[in-house]
Every structure is written in C-alpha cells, then in structure tokens.
Design a protein that fits this description.
Strand order of the largest sheet: 5-4-3-6-7
Distance between the termini: 136 Å
Largest sheet: 5 strands, mixed
Structural class: alpha+beta
Amino acid sequence: MGRRLNYPHNKRKLNGAQRILSLSITSQYGCVHSVKKNHIVRGKMWRFLDGVSEPKKKKLSADDKRKYFNEYEKNKRSRSFLLDWKKERPWLENTENGMKCSYCNEYESKRQSLFVQGCKSYKIETIKLHEQSKSHLKCQACYHAKCVPASMSEAGKLVQKLNHENFKKMAILFRTAHALAIHNRPFTDFIWMCELDSVKNVNVGETYRNAAAAKTFIYYIAKNEITKVSSRISTSKFLCIIGDGSTDASVKEQEMWFVRYCREGIISTDFIGVDSCDKASAENIVNGLQNVVQTNLSYDWNKFLLKTVAISCDGASVMVGCKGGVGAILRRQQPDMITIHCMAHRLELSLKDAAKSVKLYEKTISVLAMGLYYFYHNSSLNRAMLKRSECALKTDDDKGLLLPSRVGGTRWIGHTALALQNITVSYKYIISHLGQLTEPSERVSTDSRAKAYAFLKLLQTKSIIYFIYFLIDVLSVLKRLSLGVQNNQCLISQQHSTIESCWKFLEDTKLDFGTEDLLTLISHFRTLFEKAGLNCDEIEMEWIMLKKAICENTAKFESWTQVNEIYGHQYRNILDVMDLILTMSPSSAEAERGFSLMKVLKTKIRSTLSQGSLNDLLITKLHAPKIGDFNPSEAVYLWNSEGNRTKRVNFKDMSASKRKPTVFTQTPDVVVPQETESIVMSKPIPVSKDLETGPELDKSSTSIVYEESQQSSVSVEVQTDQIPSVEASTQTFDNELVSKQYRFSSITSEEQSNKYYSSSDEASDYSDIDSDLEEDIVFSKLLDLNTRD
C-alpha cells in the first residue's frame, strides 16, 4: 500500500476513508466495485492492490444468453410515436421505416442522417439531439430561406437596389402586361400600349416591346400567384376538390379545377388550373388533375390526396360513378374521401324531373317563353313595334318594357324565373303588338302572322296564365335556394336546413346535439385526423366543453372565425374538425363561373390560344390583385432569377445610343439613309407656297433636327447658300419624311381594325347556327299546337 493510488482516467488521489473501504470490498468480494462516481471503476482496482490477482470474468453459456435476451424482450418497455411531438416540430414525420425529418430529407446532401433513413428509437431525447444537430439546423435554415419571397430576401433587395432604373422600367412593363390580362385583351395589344407609354414620356425602353414578351411577363405573374396558392394549400390540413368539364371556343374538352380549404374558420376557394383531354373519360380526368397539381402547384400528388376529404362535382356518371367514376378512382388511393353531388345541379335536375309529368310546363316554358324570345330577338322590326306599343300604352304607374329573355342556355333556375317575370311585366305590350300583327290590314308575312296568332292564343289561355304565376311563386323560393348554394362560402349544414325549412331558433339550448354525428365523422376520418396531428380521443370531450363555453359566453358569435379567435388554443382538436366540415363544398358552381371566364378569354377569334397561356391568364385574372393594388416586384424578380438566358433590359437602348448623329447636305438629289426610317420631325421645314421662286431663307446655314429617341438624334444640316431654289421634289421629300411614320401606323391600324371587325362578324354568324336550329324546333312545336287546337 506504499504506492499512490492513481487512476488513469482522472489522476486523482483517494482519501483515507475511500482507501479503507476499497480494501474491505476487495478482501470480501475479490474485486473492486464503484464507491464514488468517476473515482473507482469496477474491474481495475486490482492493479493497485498487493496480493490481488485479476478476477475471472464470468462467462454465460448460450442457454443463459438466450434466456436473458428472451426475458429482456418480454419485460422491455414498448415505445411508439406520440402525436404531441409534432406540435412544435412540423418537420417530424412518422413512416413505416421510423421517424423522418422532412427538412433533412430534402436538403441534406450526404443523406447519412438517421432521420433521413428512418429512426426507430422513439424517444424524445433522440428527437432533441437531432433537433440540435448542425446538419438539421443547416437544412432548417435552407427551408426557411426558400419560404421567404424572392423579392423580400437579402439578395433580392440587393439586386433591386443595384439595378433600380432597370427594375423601375421592368415594373412598368409588368404592370402593362397585368392590365392586359385583367381586361381580357390579346397579347398584341401590349405593343401599342408600350408605344402609348413612350408618347407620354414614360421610359419603358426599346427592349421587350412585343407580344412574346407580354406572354412571358404574364407567365411569371401567374407563377408568382400560383406559388402563393401552393403555400396556402401546403399549410392547410384538409382539402376539397371542385371540378367540372366543358368545351371551349376551339371545341376542345377542358377540365377546370378549384380547391377549397378552411383554416381557423376562414373558408377560401382557389383556382389551381385547367387541363384539356382528348376524351372525357374518368382515367383521363384523373390524370389531368394530377398533372395540374404537379405542374402548376409543384406539389406532391400523394400528399395532396392525403389531405383531400371530398370532391364536389356535377351529377355526370363519369364523375360520380360508383365503380369507374372519378370519385371511385380517387377513393382507391384515399379511402376516406367522399363524393358530393352539387346541390345546385341536383336542384335543377329535380325540377326537370318534376316538370316531365306536367304538360303545361312544356307549353309555358319550351313553347311560349322560348318562342317569344326568338320572335323578338331575331327581328329588329318586331322589337321596334313592341317599343311603339309601350309608348302608346304606358302610364305613370306602369313599369317599363322588359324584352322576353332566354329561358334555356343555362342551368340555373333564376333565368327561368326572370323570363317569366318579364312576360308578366310586359304582358299588355306584347298582347297589343301581337293583336296588331293578326289584323288583316297589317302588311306582314304569313309566317309572322301565324306565329303571332299562336302566341296570342296561348297568352289568352286561362290555364297558361295561372300556371305562369304559379311558377313565379315556386321559382322565387327555389331561386333563393339556388343562389345560396352557388355561393362559394356556402355550408352543407346551412343548405340542408334551408331545404328542410328549419329556420326556427332553439329556445332551450341542449348540449347533447351533434354528438352522434361527430362520432360518425371520427370513425370515418380517423386515419386522416391522426395524420393531421389531431388527438381523436379528446375530440368528443372538447366538443362538449366548447358547446358549454359558447352557451355561457354572452358574446354573439356570427362565424367560426370568431370562435377560433377566442377558443383556438383551448379546443384545437374540435375546431380542426370544424375546419374539415367547412372545407367540404356542397356546390361546384365555382367551376361554372370559371368556365364563363374561360369563354370570355378564349373566344373564336383567339381559338389558337395555347393551354399554358390559358392557364396563366386564368390564374392572373382570378388570383392577381386589381390594377391599383398590383405590386410587380415579386414577379419581376422571379422573371429575372429564372431562365438560362441573360436578361438584357437595355439591349436595344444601348444599340440605339451607339448610333452617331449624321450630317447631310441638302441637295436636289437627297438619299434618305435607312436610319431615318422611323424618325419624327421635331420642327418642320418652312415651305413657301410659291414653288417657282422658292422660300426666302437666311444665307446662314439652318439646322433641322429629327429626334428618333431620347438617347439619339439625327441632324440634317441645310447649306442654303449653295441652293439657289427649292425644287418641287424637295418639298415632296420633306412632306413624305414628316408623314411617313404616321401614314404607316394609320394604315396598319386600319387594316388590323378591319380584320378584327370582320372576324367578329364571322364569329357572330357562326354563333347563331345553334340558336337558329333551336328556334326552328320551338316554332315547329308552336305550329303543331296551333294546328291541333
């Protein structure tokens, strides 16, 4: 014991008590056990004690090892993934291979992290270690930097500061392109709009003043807006797809798609794209939707489907078919998704089915209302004579003339109610005019007299008049319901209550309502709720507590947004369930409005509009702000940062500034150089009326400047002392030089305008083909009824 007890790991001494204790332990057990942490290590003390040899290691047999591990497997703690871990960690995902980090999975280059391959150590300590690692912090910084808009980043601000003049010039061009898309104008209008800016001394440069540049600018404006839509969709927990199909002006099948979502009680519906397909089959429609999600939104298709809770569409079999419809195909990948038949379409179909058994409906709507519409719509003479009848019969108490409107052509009930209302308001004017046409003294065609006689007979029939007023009463109620369903903020619960006429307020509040329906929702969407981070075990309890809290609160809640503001932190699970219910759209009217806008953009004159340009125009029209609120900074930076080609904003401006002023000596035989093709004269040459004697000019040389642009000018110096007189050819040259540009621009504009109006006339002729055919069918029914009577 004369040696000092030193330990290799810390080189510290043992005090007297520790030395005595170690000797007693060694003599009793033959080895040293740990007495104080980090001081005595088991199995190493024997080297410092005299007379003590190395203890023999106890070896376990194979049976003992097997028994030990079997016992450990039975008694070890079973660990699993907890949903609470995801509350402050949006990057954490639980997969079949274990826990993964979405940030590291996307941005880590080496891909050696355990949370990239899959970590099955379900411990909070493991997650915290990864959360504090350098690789994760670096990937997290990359993710947040990507989420910041390009124009708001430090690099973007620096570029804008260095190129302030060029940025200001491009902002004007982007504003012009934005206004072009908002007002449904063709890309070629961008050229004359830039010329107008130049005339108004607005510096837009000479580069990018063509239709192709306008198309590119609108593409980046649309891309910037659809990126915002994609970010909103990515932060939403539940989605509802709204889709419908129609044909455009070029007779191509187009499928239009919207997405509805709700966040904290705020309902939003966004347009995501339109896709064309050769055949409107269920497989092609689903492939088109997948293409729109992946191309326009740049969003993963599987993640998009996992958030989808419903698809709202019309009643076409290709959409709602139980086996081969679009909804059935999507349910194979997302079993929790449900299909919602548009209530506005169902209401229309119900009215149509009910009208089949009523014979008066066909006489009143299909024959009388449609016949009167075509009778006055296709004849300017009949409209003029009807207005004369109004002037002769109208009194101070009467309403003004309302021309018969079209009943068919649209599905909504409101148009039918409006057509019948117009007939009742203008009833006496129509009766008077039709009575004049049936008189033998009137010089009208045989066809018009026969139609007038048939219409007059129907309008004077007692049953027809009663049925018209009956339909007005019925359709006024259905019209209100139809308009409510078409609202993009409508809710399924509100529409059901409207249909069932349950508008009474509950006098005694009961806290047991809705529990069974809530349990049904939980059982159906349990998998989706768990993936969204909801605790399904607490939803029912939170529902009871939320109802009680709302009833006890004296404030009046008008929307779920106010409920989220007050109780969002206390009852997050049940309010997320409410977001799912609000996400479901009971109507696909949003798609119908989108098709109306598409037909305004893609007309028969613009039938060659490409699919990409159509998408960009629709996105800009539906998502971009108004002209006064539009900020082009983000779109300009996006345009500047993408693409392989360098953006040379001042390319044509620099080439124009390199041109040196040229001095010409005026002679009778003057040759105009090519540089003066598009120059504008700032000060015309004074020309005398007497061509024989010529103008009286000063002997000193006179300089005449022709300004081509703000950067360059061409000077023509006239040496008058060398010219005895000005010939007629010289005057002709001057006049042609002054008016050359204006004559060319006026001729071009006249040719374009003539071409435009001729094309529109042809388009209107083609559009009347279908209406003429329908008119013949209506009048044939009218004459058949007249012959039978």
